[in-house]
Amino acid sequence: MSVSTGEPSTTAQAASTIPNSVLGKAFSILSAFDDESDTLRLVDLSQRSGVPKPSVYRLAQELVSLGMLERSGNAYRIGFNVFALSQRVSSASLLHKVGRPVLVDLVAMTRGTAHLAVLDGTGTYYLEKLGGTRSVHALSRVGGHLPLTCTASGKLLLAMSPRSDQLLDEVLADRFPRLTPHSPHDRALLRREMDTIRSNRLATEREETLMGFKSFAVPIYDGGDEAIAALSLTVPISHTGDTALVKTLRLASAGITRQHTRLAMNDAWDRRHLA
Length: 275
Hints:
Layout: H1 10-13, H2 22-30, E1 39-41, H3 42-49, H4 53-65, E2 69-72, E3 75-78, H5 80-86, H6 90-110, E4 113-120, E5 123-130, H7 134-139, E6 145-147, H8 152-160, H9 164-171, H10 187-200, E7 203-206, E8 213-221, E9 227-236, H11 242-274
Antiparallel strand pairs: 1-3, 2-3, 4-5, 4-9, 5-6, 7-8, 8-9
Helix pairs in contact: 2-3, 2-4, 6-11, 8-10
């Protein structure tokens, strides 16, 4: 997840990785929005995106004409065409469709924060998030990223990836990304943890992402043995009954896997026979 704490978005913080082009600037502007700031003024867009105000104004007008942004008084919000385009990302869209009702039930049963995440480069990308206290809400957001090595979802996705070793080398090429004093800082220990996660098909973290909280993550499969997403629950560190919580999480994951596999097969049949 991108860290959303009222500061500039992760996209702005990592602006050096975004091309300094018209397309790159437009991407930075669109990425400035999050679930806490769905309406932003011109000056906010400039500060969050790192794009100069005159360029933001010009590009915002073009994005409005394309339906990617909408005017809301003297501010802007994400336009419908962004949502429409996102629905064309079939796998992510399908996971979101079948996963959201399950997350609703998980939150109701556990009163934790439920996340649905996928691997995106060397980060954990969050497709859905429900529930949570204010502090958890501030840390994570839908459509954002967090380091693979700090979150339960990230560690699960990293361990279950077919290119786990290579991916871990890429993540650790420069330094350990750390969110708290408890975030992993030993390469050998982290590699051993990857083996344990693969064996148990379960990843955990305790105050490695956010002080006062712990998380558990289990895989969602493609119908075979490949993990395509992670389902996680975050609860206060004082929470008891972790065994029951993990069992509930596994049952929920199995339900999403079944639904996703069935709908993916139906979609594939439709494409073959209705084209």
